[in-house]
Amino acid sequence: MSAAKTTIFLTGATGYIGATVLQRLLQHPNAARFELTALVRSPEKARILAEEYGVRAVVGSNAELEKLTQLAEGADIVLNIADSDDIKAAGAIMQGLKARYHKTGTKPTLIHTSGTGFLTDDARGMYASDKVYHDSIPEEIEALPDTAFHRNVDLAVIAGDREGYLRALILSPSLIFGQGAGPLFQRGLANPRSIQLPLLIKASLARGRGAGMVGAGKSVWNHVHVDDVADSYITLVDALLRDAEAVPHGRAGFYIIENGEHTWYDLSAALAAALVELGLATAANSEPVPFTQEDIDRFIGNTFLAHLALGSNARGRGEQARSLGWKPKYTTADLFAS
Question: Which fold has domain 6-123+130-192+223-256?
Answer without folding.
Answer: Rossmann fold (3.40.50)
